[in-house]
Amino acid sequence: xxxxxxxxxxxxxxxxxxxxxxxxxxxxxxxxxxxxxxxxxxxxxxxxxxxxxxxxxxxxxxxxxxxxxxxxxxxxxxxxxxxxxxxxxxxxxxxxxxxxxxxxxxxxxxxxxxxxxxxxxxxxxxxxxxxxxxxxxxxxxxxxxxxxxxxxxxxxxxxxxxxxxxxxxxxxxxxxxxxxxxxxxxxxxxxxxxxxxxxxxxxxxxxxxxxxxxxxxxxxxxxxxxxxxxxxxxxxxxxxxxxxxxxxxxxxxxxxxxxxxxxxxxxxxxxxxxxxxxxxxxxxxxxxxxxxxxxxxxxxxxxxxxxxxxxxxxxxxxxxxxxxxxxxxxxxxxxxxxxxxxxxxxxxxxxxxxxxxxxxxxxxxxxx
Length: 368
Ligand SMILES: O=C(O)CCC(=O)C(=O)O
Ligand SMILES: [Fe+2]
Known about the structure:
It is a single chain. The chain is an alpha+beta fold. It has one domain: Alpha-ketoglutarate-dependent dioxygenase AlkB-like (Jelly Rolls), CATH 2.60.120. Helix content is 20%, strand content 19%. The protein has helices at 19-28, 63-68, 100-110, 130-143, 184-196, 293-296, 314-324, 349-353; strands at 50-53, 78-82, 85-92, 117-118, 160-164, 206-212, 218-221, 233-239, 242-246, 256-260, 265-268, 277-282, 328-334. A hairpin with a 2-residue loop joins strand 2 (78-82) and strand 3 (85-92). The model is unreliable at 1-11 and 348-368 (pLDDT under 50). The site of 2-oxoglutaric acid has 12 residues, from strand 6, strand 9, strand 12 and strand 13.
């Protein structure tokens, strides 16, 4: 698979003039830039479609682990649903001070290392440690910005990393043998978030970490290759703000546009587990080189796991910060197979029947 210059994994099916696509194009447009007044903003939560959600205190079983992973006590989380989108949950930046840096650092420095899989593997000789090999050149590029003719660097070309069961983008499937150990910290984070939101026994088995530049998009798609639809997709956003479109089971459903900002967590379950979604735009920061507030915070709160404290990251953060000035990271965590079931059988036959018509193109395509 060739890495696209601009990250467009866009749907090119014949019925392309569908509502989802129309909205995608509208938000993607540069000139004129779209009006953003209809984009749902959970920060101000003014839209009448927004429904506040109460966490069931019975689900808060291990707030100390959540704290160690960098999250506020769930009683402080601001959780929302959206009218007409059953199973969708939005948690507005529930992180403790300074704790997002840890996850950003993991996504940049550690998760893209071998044996995990990245889009760069097929690009060239194979890169063992993308950050280590790519950062010096990237830094030089950024310091010389203005010379637009300069070719993009290796780090600019990093588009995704897969973890756990590695999604095969060519065959468009997971395979039981394409597996490397899922990172323990991310598994803990996902299972604790899932448990708190009422999804006990969640198994984080696979993740796609997406890296977006300021000109990147992710075309409309449904994540339907997992074999257990009864388990949610949990999405963690860091860095620059995205406009996220969440539609319905077909592309004829008018999608809802919302901002996904640094620190926000989103869950797609129930009806929205198989909904079309995509990212038509990353918003440029108000001032060039501006980091989201949460990434400027220095942490050091009590009860946070030692490895998450900035002490161990001080030197490296300066580098990560430079990169995050022009980047958005999203991690989507998935449970691929139901507990006790193998790869042979889909565990939710009911959902299978209601699955949307799939075209080859409606899945991830590289856009190249
Ligand atoms: O970047 C996002 O918010 C969405 C990512 C996504 O949909 C995916 O990786 O399947
Ligand atoms: Fe997705």
